[in-house]
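WARN retry 2 of 3 for item q-0093 after timeout on previous attempt; input resubmitted unchanged.
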Amino acid sequence: MIFVTVGTQRFQFNRLFKELDRLIKSGEISEEVVAQTGYTDYQPEQYQGESMVSPEKMDEFIDKSTLVITHAGTSSIIKCLKQDKKVVVVPRVAKYGEHVDDHQLEIAELFAGQNLIEPVYDIKDLKEKINAVKGKSYSSYKFDNTKLIGSIDDYLTSLSRSL
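OK item q-0093 returned
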């Protein structure tokens, strides 16, 4: 199963969902596709789509999936990487009315530069990237929170000194 998630941003992502329908209809994608469609105004024809799913259902879909297609939201990407899934990232782009700016392009480049995800910068490349991700090895995601813990410790230490 391919799971698609686009987060909870209040923007449409018709470009992605239309391309998925086209690929399924043409037989280029034969796997089952399940999508969390968010606020898109396009209704999938060839696959199951729900606007929002519970966190538990999200985890279940990710767990069952062979790969995940997601927007370039850091939470969505990291959630999938923590579950050791191969991730295809389609950044939302401002010129298509999918977000207010193009920061998701930068996020996708950052994760791709660390060999963690497969980015899709042109929606016409989606099928090629789905095929590529299946045979490619990616780096393991490791969350290093030592700086965060150090900052919290320093802050708490400074508070205790001022008491």
